[in-house]
Design a protein that fits this description.
Length: about 450
């Protein structure tokens, strides 16, 4: 977030580049034996940026950010992101949206781009608010193990562009000269083309994010956690997906799937397939296998060309002893893992039906078991266990033992710990994970 009172023009600060600590010359293979000073690079970037800890405390800011707010670094570093900033009451919902986006990026590991948001800053007179619009991007920072350990928040003041476009739109409606309006809207042809291109890319990314990987539901008595790690660092979209939502009957439906491909076309097909499935499942009392069969027929009839592996499960309402019935189906997908309350882990091996999208065939089969308080269901895509040098079956054979070790060492951090243990930073495939823990009637079991 980037809100602060407009400070006096005389406010100065020591440039972050001069605050940087030089990195030791530790790599003799580098030119002149000098390693890059990445903090100095960060300070020199022209776009305003803030580096945040996982608790949203400010770790560092670059010069462009300080120049934009006209505040010294000591006013921000070491403090919570929004500490000390004053917001108009009308902007609170938009401020909360930015914080929620940062928390989602921390959870999912995906870049989020926010449409231009109006968040005003205090004026020089008491009670005065000055209109400002911000273009924001929230970016995960991974460590060597693939865990999100920091967040990079980019915020640019686009007030002039937004206000000029708004004025031009009004002028056009009241019939002013088209050439004048065009000049005002674009603020010069090069700026206009850049802004239009940026807007198109941002809209496409936002539409994909909004339609594909929404936050999971949190039904009473269950704790659902999700993670997504894309193979592509550039697009941050791919063919893997997760979903977790409450059905109209009160049951909980969870899915992971993997559409063939890792590009934006796979992501688009995946988004269509996911939408069809959740639409059919929401108001249905049918089993997961029947829902997959209906999804396949509907997708084929609607022209959705996608082939995917899918694991889908329905978790029933609690019984008298808080046990829940788990019903699942696997369409060419790795088996779910069940972590029992005592820390033991079993793969739910069962009949593996044909992939989704391959056309007519035998009716898919459901499988059932019981979930007890303290049990955790784990659904995942094959990117968690399969490597070029490790066959899928070998990875599955080792998975229960690894999950048991992770549960013993990191019981409250299962998904992040699994990603750190199993998924290399230079991954070859997308990874989607969903965990569903059955809570004890009086609260968490862990």
């Amino acid at each position: 977030m980037t809100d602060d009172a407009e400070g006096p023009a005389s406010v100065t600060h020591e440039p972050a580049a001069r605050r940087a600590v030089a990195t030791p010359d530790s790599d003799p293979t580098r030119p002149h034996g000098a390693a890059p000073d990445y903090r100095a690079v960060f300070a020199a970037l022209s776009a305003p940026k803030v580096l945040l800890a996982t608790d949203l405390t400010v770790l560092d800011v670059n010069d462009a950010y300080l120049d934009m707010l006209e505040v010294p670094a000591r006013a921000l570093v070491g403090r919570p992101l929004n500490d000390g900033f004053d917001f108009s009451p009308e902007d609170r919902e938009r401020v909360d949206r930015v914080v929620a986006s940062l928390r989602r990026v921390l959870q999912t590991g995906r870049i989020e781009l926010l449409e231009p948001l109006r968040i005003d800053v205090p004026g020089r007179r008491p009670g005065e608010w000055v209109e400002h619009h911000w273009l924001m991007t929230n970016i995960p920072v991974f460590d060597a193990s693939g865990r999100v350990t920091a967040l990079l928040h980019r915020a640019e003041d686009v007030t002039d562009i937004v206000q000029t476009s708004q004025r031009a739109a009004v002028d056009k409606r009241i019939g002013l000269d088209a050439a004048v309006v065009d000049h005002a809207m674009h603020m010069g042809s090069s700026v206009g083309r850049f802004q239009e291109s940026l807007d198109r890319e941002r809209r496409a990314a936002l539409q994909l994010q909004d339609s594909i990987l929404t936050p999971p539901a949190q039904p009473a008595g269950l704790r659902i956690d999700v993670r997504y790690r894309p193979a592509s660092r550039d697009m941050h979209v791919g063919g893997d997906w997760y979903d977790a939502f409450e059905q109209s009957c009160g049951c909980t439906f969870v899915v992971v799937g993997d559409v063939v491909g890792h590009d934006i076309r796979a992501a688009a097909a995946m988004g269509q397939l996911r939408g069809v499935m959740r639409g059919l499942a929401y108001d249905s009392v049918e089993s997961p296998a029947a829902i997959l069969d209906r999804t396949e027929r509907a997708a084929g009839g609607l022209g959705v060309e996608a082939v995917a592996t899918v694991a889908a499960a329905r978790i029933g309402l609690p019984g008298p002893t808080a046990e829940r019935t788990l019903t699942w189906v696997s369409a060419g997908h790795p088996p779910p893992a069940l972590v029992r309350s005592d820390g033991s882990v079993d793969l739910l091996w069962a009949r593996n039906d044909r992939l989704l999208g391959l056309g007519a065939g035998d009716v898919r089969a459901d499988h059932t078991t019981l979930l007890r308080p303290g049990d955790t269901l784990l659904l995942y895509t094959d990117g968690l266990v399969e490597r070029r040098d490790v066959p899928l079956r070998a990875g599955l054979d080792h998975l229960p033992g690894i999950v048991e070790e992770v549960v013993r060492s990191s019981p409250d951090d299962l998904l992040d710990a699994l990603l750190a243990r199993l998924v290399p930073r230079t991954r070859e495939d997308d990874v989607a994970l969903v965990s569903v823990e059955v809570l004890a009637p009086d609260g968490p079991t862990s």
